[in-house]
Protein backbone atom coordinates (compact mmCIF):
# COMPACT_ATOMS: atom_id res chain seq x y z
CA UNK A 1 0.00 0.00 0.00
CA UNK A 2 1.19 3.42 -0.91
CA UNK A 3 1.55 5.66 2.18
CA UNK A 4 1.22 8.86 0.14
CA UNK A 5 -2.14 7.62 -1.10
CA UNK A 6 -3.25 7.30 2.53
CA UNK A 7 -2.01 10.84 3.21
CA UNK A 8 -4.00 12.08 0.22
CA UNK A 9 -7.16 10.49 1.59
CA UNK A 10 -6.47 12.13 4.95
CA UNK A 11 -5.91 15.53 3.36
CA UNK A 12 -9.38 15.70 1.78
CA UNK A 13 -11.51 18.43 3.26
CA UNK A 14 -14.77 20.16 2.42
CA UNK A 15 -14.39 23.08 0.03
CA UNK A 16 -17.03 25.77 -0.07
CA UNK A 17 -15.44 28.41 -2.31
CA UNK A 18 -15.03 27.77 -6.01
CA UNK A 19 -13.45 29.55 -8.95
CA UNK A 20 -15.51 29.64 -12.13
CA UNK A 21 -13.12 27.69 -14.37
CA UNK A 22 -15.00 24.83 -15.98
CA UNK A 23 -14.29 21.12 -15.54
CA UNK A 24 -14.03 19.07 -18.74
CA UNK A 25 -16.50 16.28 -19.39
CA UNK A 26 -13.54 13.90 -19.48
CA UNK A 27 -12.56 14.82 -15.92
CA UNK A 28 -16.14 14.64 -14.68
CA UNK A 29 -16.42 11.18 -16.22
CA UNK A 30 -13.14 10.11 -14.61
CA UNK A 31 -14.54 11.18 -11.21
CA UNK A 32 -17.81 9.35 -11.89
CA UNK A 33 -15.97 6.14 -12.85
CA UNK A 34 -14.21 6.17 -9.49
CA UNK A 35 -17.52 6.93 -7.78
CA UNK A 36 -19.26 3.98 -9.35
CA UNK A 37 -16.47 1.62 -8.33
CA UNK A 38 -17.85 1.87 -4.78
CA UNK A 39 -19.21 -1.27 -3.17
CA UNK A 40 -22.96 -1.83 -2.91
CA UNK A 41 -24.99 -4.53 -1.21
CA UNK A 42 -25.23 -7.52 -3.55
CA UNK A 43 -23.65 -5.26 -6.20
CA UNK A 44 -27.16 -3.91 -6.90
CA UNK A 45 -25.75 -0.42 -7.65
CA UNK A 46 -29.09 1.17 -6.74
CA UNK A 47 -27.98 4.67 -7.61
CA UNK A 48 -28.01 7.38 -10.25
CA UNK A 49 -25.98 10.59 -10.46
CA UNK A 50 -27.41 13.68 -12.13
CA UNK A 51 -24.70 15.95 -13.54
CA UNK A 52 -25.80 19.58 -13.34
CA UNK A 53 -24.10 22.42 -15.20
CA UNK A 54 -27.10 24.62 -15.87
CA UNK A 55 -26.98 27.88 -13.89
CA UNK A 56 -30.69 28.04 -13.09
CA UNK A 57 -30.77 24.44 -11.94
CA UNK A 58 -27.76 25.06 -9.68
CA UNK A 59 -29.51 28.10 -8.18
CA UNK A 60 -32.66 26.05 -7.57
CA UNK A 61 -30.54 23.37 -5.86
CA UNK A 62 -28.84 26.03 -3.70
CA UNK A 63 -32.27 27.29 -2.66
CA UNK A 64 -33.41 23.74 -1.90
CA UNK A 65 -30.26 23.39 0.21
CA UNK A 66 -31.44 26.01 2.69
CA UNK A 67 -29.77 28.74 0.65
CA UNK A 68 -26.25 27.32 0.71
CA UNK A 69 -25.40 29.65 -2.14
CA UNK A 70 -21.81 28.48 -2.51
CA UNK A 71 -22.96 25.34 -4.24
CA UNK A 72 -24.26 27.35 -7.21
CA UNK A 73 -20.75 28.82 -7.70
CA UNK A 74 -19.30 25.43 -8.61
CA UNK A 75 -19.06 24.68 -12.34
CA UNK A 76 -20.38 21.16 -11.82
CA UNK A 77 -22.87 19.92 -9.26
CA UNK A 78 -23.54 16.20 -8.86
CA UNK A 79 -26.80 15.04 -7.33
CA UNK A 80 -26.47 11.53 -5.96
CA UNK A 81 -29.81 9.73 -6.05
CA UNK A 82 -30.85 6.51 -4.37
CA UNK A 83 -33.21 4.06 -6.06
CA UNK A 84 -34.58 2.25 -2.99
CA UNK A 85 -36.74 -0.23 -4.93
CA UNK A 86 -33.69 -1.67 -6.71
CA UNK A 87 -32.30 -2.63 -3.33
CA UNK A 88 -35.69 -3.66 -1.93
CA UNK A 89 -36.15 -6.17 -4.77
CA UNK A 90 -33.50 -8.35 -3.18
CA UNK A 91 -33.28 -7.18 0.41
CA UNK A 92 -36.78 -5.98 1.24
CA UNK A 93 -37.15 -3.43 4.00
CA UNK A 94 -33.47 -3.58 5.00
CA UNK A 95 -32.46 -2.86 1.41
CA UNK A 96 -34.87 0.04 1.10
CA UNK A 97 -34.12 1.74 4.40
CA UNK A 98 -30.49 0.86 5.10
CA UNK A 99 -28.43 -0.67 2.28
CA UNK A 100 -29.42 1.86 -0.36
CA UNK A 101 -28.26 4.69 1.91
CA UNK A 102 -25.02 2.91 2.73
CA UNK A 103 -24.46 2.27 -0.99
CA UNK A 104 -25.01 5.90 -1.94
CA UNK A 105 -22.83 7.06 0.97
CA UNK A 106 -19.99 4.85 -0.32
CA UNK A 107 -20.51 6.26 -3.81
CA UNK A 108 -20.45 9.79 -2.41
CA UNK A 109 -17.22 9.27 -0.52
CA UNK A 110 -15.58 7.81 -3.64
CA UNK A 111 -16.71 10.85 -5.64
CA UNK A 112 -15.28 13.23 -3.02
CA UNK A 113 -11.96 11.41 -2.96
CA UNK A 114 -11.75 11.24 -6.75
CA UNK A 115 -12.43 14.99 -7.01
CA UNK A 116 -9.77 15.65 -4.38
CA UNK A 117 -7.21 13.44 -6.10
CA UNK A 118 -7.90 15.22 -9.40
CA UNK A 119 -7.07 18.51 -7.65
CA UNK A 120 -10.63 19.84 -7.30
CA UNK A 121 -12.54 20.93 -4.24
CA UNK A 122 -15.89 19.41 -3.32
CA UNK A 123 -18.35 19.26 -0.47
CA UNK A 124 -20.90 16.74 0.77
CA UNK A 125 -24.22 18.58 1.10
CA UNK A 126 -26.91 16.72 2.96
CA UNK A 127 -28.96 19.59 4.33
CA UNK A 128 -31.66 20.17 1.72
CA UNK A 129 -35.36 19.95 1.19
CA UNK A 130 -35.68 16.68 -0.68
CA UNK A 131 -38.84 17.51 -2.61
CA UNK A 132 -37.46 20.90 -3.72
CA UNK A 133 -34.22 19.26 -4.84
CA UNK A 134 -36.16 16.56 -6.70
CA UNK A 135 -38.19 19.27 -8.42
CA UNK A 136 -35.06 21.26 -9.36
CA UNK A 137 -33.60 18.32 -11.27
CA UNK A 138 -36.95 16.85 -12.28
CA UNK A 139 -36.14 13.35 -11.04
CA UNK A 140 -38.38 10.51 -12.10
CA UNK A 141 -40.49 8.77 -9.49
CA UNK A 142 -38.53 6.22 -7.46
CA UNK A 143 -35.29 8.22 -7.47
CA UNK A 144 -34.46 9.94 -4.19
CA UNK A 145 -31.88 12.76 -4.12
CA UNK A 146 -29.69 12.00 -1.10
CA UNK A 147 -26.53 14.07 -1.52
CA UNK A 148 -25.58 17.18 -3.49
CA UNK A 149 -21.90 17.58 -4.39
CA UNK A 150 -20.57 20.82 -5.86
CA UNK A 151 -17.18 20.33 -7.53
CA UNK A 152 -14.80 22.98 -8.81
CA UNK A 153 -11.39 24.54 -8.67
CA UNK A 154 -10.55 25.74 -5.20
CA UNK A 155 -10.71 29.51 -4.80
CA UNK A 156 -8.48 30.82 -2.01
CA UNK A 157 -6.50 28.92 0.61
CA UNK A 158 -7.34 25.32 1.46
CA UNK A 159 -9.01 25.30 4.88
CA UNK A 160 -7.23 23.78 7.87
CA UNK A 161 -7.96 20.10 8.34
CA UNK A 162 -10.87 19.84 10.75
CA UNK A 163 -10.39 18.26 14.13
CA UNK A 164 -10.93 14.53 14.40
CA UNK A 165 -11.68 12.79 17.67
CA UNK A 166 -8.70 10.71 18.83
CA UNK A 167 -8.73 6.96 18.27
CA UNK A 168 -8.95 6.40 22.02
CA UNK A 169 -12.35 8.08 21.98
CA UNK A 170 -13.88 6.37 18.99
CA UNK A 171 -12.31 2.91 18.87
CA UNK A 172 -13.93 0.47 21.24
CA UNK A 173 -12.06 -2.67 22.22
CA UNK A 174 -13.93 -5.93 22.11
CA UNK A 175 -15.21 -6.85 25.52
CA UNK A 176 -14.82 -10.58 25.48
C1 LIG B 1 -24.21 13.48 5.95
C2 LIG B 1 -23.44 14.75 5.74
C3 LIG B 1 -24.13 15.93 5.51
C4 LIG B 1 -23.43 17.13 5.32
N1 LIG B 1 -24.14 18.25 4.97
C5 LIG B 1 -23.47 19.41 4.74
C6 LIG B 1 -24.18 20.56 4.29
O1 LIG B 1 -25.38 20.56 4.09
N2 LIG B 1 -23.44 21.69 4.08
C7 LIG B 1 -22.09 21.74 4.24
O2 LIG B 1 -21.51 22.81 4.00
N3 LIG B 1 -21.39 20.66 4.65
C8 LIG B 1 -22.04 19.49 4.90
N4 LIG B 1 -21.35 18.35 5.24
C9 LIG B 1 -19.88 18.41 5.36
C10 LIG B 1 -19.42 18.36 6.81
O3 LIG B 1 -19.73 19.57 7.45
C11 LIG B 1 -17.91 18.09 6.85
O4 LIG B 1 -17.62 16.89 6.18
C12 LIG B 1 -17.38 17.99 8.29
O5 LIG B 1 -17.52 19.22 8.97
C13 LIG B 1 -15.90 17.59 8.33
O6 LIG B 1 -15.14 18.50 7.60
P1 LIG B 1 -14.22 18.03 6.37
O7 LIG B 1 -15.12 17.42 5.30
O8 LIG B 1 -13.56 19.29 5.89
O9 LIG B 1 -13.25 17.03 6.88
C14 LIG B 1 -22.02 17.15 5.41
C15 LIG B 1 -21.33 15.96 5.64
C16 LIG B 1 -22.02 14.76 5.77
C17 LIG B 1 -21.24 13.47 5.92
List cofactors, ions and other ligands: flavin mononucleotide
Helix content: 40-55%
If strands are numbered along the chain, what order do they take across the biggest sheet?
1-2-4-3
Number of strands: 4
> What CATH architecture would you give?
3-Layer(aba) Sandwich
Q: What is the overall number of helices? A: 7
User: CATH first level: which class?
Assistant: Alpha Beta
Shape: globular
Structural class: alpha+beta
Low-confidence parts: none
Q: Whole-number average pLDDT?
A: 97
Biggest beta-sheet profile: 4 strands, antiparallel
Strand content: 5-15%
Radius of gyration: 17 Å
Q: Classify the fold: give the CATH topology.
A: NADH Oxidase
The CATH superfamily is identified as NADH Oxidase
Number of domains: 1
- Give the H and E element order: HHEHHEHEHEH
N/C terminus separation: 31 Å
Describe the structure.
The chain is of the alpha+beta class and 176 residues long. The chain has a single domain, classed as NADH Oxidase, CATH 3.40.109. Helices cover 45% and strands 14% of the residues. The structure holds flavin mononucleotide. Flavin mononucleotide is lined by residues 13-14, 16, 68, 123-127, 162.
Fold blueprint:
Blueprint: H1 3-11, H2 25-35, E1 47-52, H3 55-64, H4 70-73, E2 76-82, H5 84-117, E3 121-122, H6 130-137, E4 144-152, H7 167-170
Helix pairs in contact: 2-5, 3-6
The structure holds flavin mononucleotide.
Amino acid sequence: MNESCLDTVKSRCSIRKFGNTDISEENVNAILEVGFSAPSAGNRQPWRVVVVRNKNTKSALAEAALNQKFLAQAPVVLVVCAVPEESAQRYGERGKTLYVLQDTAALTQNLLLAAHMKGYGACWIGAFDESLAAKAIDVPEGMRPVVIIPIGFIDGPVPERRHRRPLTEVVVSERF
